[in-house]
Amino acid sequence: MNIFRLAGDMTHLLSILVLLLKIYATKSCSGISRKTQELYAIVFVARYLDLFTDFISVYNTFMKVVFIASSLAIVWCMRFHPMVRRSYDRELDTFRHYFLVGASFALALILHEKFTVQEIFWAFSIYLEAVAILPQLVLLQRSGNVDNLTGQYIFFLGAYRAFYILNWIYRYLTEPHFTRWIACVSGVVQTALYADFFYYYFISWKNNSKLKLPA
């Protein structure tokens, strides 16, 4: 554990808490892509197949359970909660996310670090997480306006990946046998996808105005 890993975990957790606050406080999921949330649920379930086989620490196990449970809870609310599901932007959330699932799994079968079931699914989760934000970004570009909580959620989600890049750099410099190149490359790709959003987020913060994305 290092400061960059801890900061990444905390900003990731904060992003989830902000999203849960939006859903449960406002009883609305307007501006949130259900398809992105479904992709994240798949990511965490696939990545943490070792939850019942490999124990690293109480902290590690706790965070795995939190990410799986929270992602499934968010998807459930958006699909089945009688009030929340009414606010879902079905007409705007039309990204064909199943293509991302298929492409990520195919890539995991080709590019992986070890040919085992657990490592294949780990690589699949890394590839899928790198592009899981795409349906959300497309939805926001189509809607134009971004409410405050949705903007905060995406900002913290992007910051989490940025901290993890610093974590990987730190580990590469301090751990002789650190070889998670798949995570490093995918993390850079994922952070790059947030660049446009971060630009407009900074502009809105600087001008103290409402966050708007170009169509």
UniProtKB/TrEMBL annotation:
Topology of this chain in the membrane: Multi-pass membrane protein
Sample GO molecular function, one term: ER retention sequence binding
InterPro entries referenced in this protein's UniProt entry, alphabetically: ER_ret_rcpt
Membrane-spanning intervals of the chain: 56-77, 98-115, 121-141, 153-173, 179-202
GO cellular component labels: cis-Golgi network; endoplasmic reticulum; endoplasmic reticulum membrane
Pfam families, sorted: ER_lumen_recept (PF00810)
Protein family per UniProt: Belongs to the ERD2 family.
Protein name: ER lumen protein-retaining receptor
Originating species: Glycine max
Taxonomic lineage from the root: Eukaryota, Viridiplantae, Streptophyta, Embryophyta, Tracheophyta
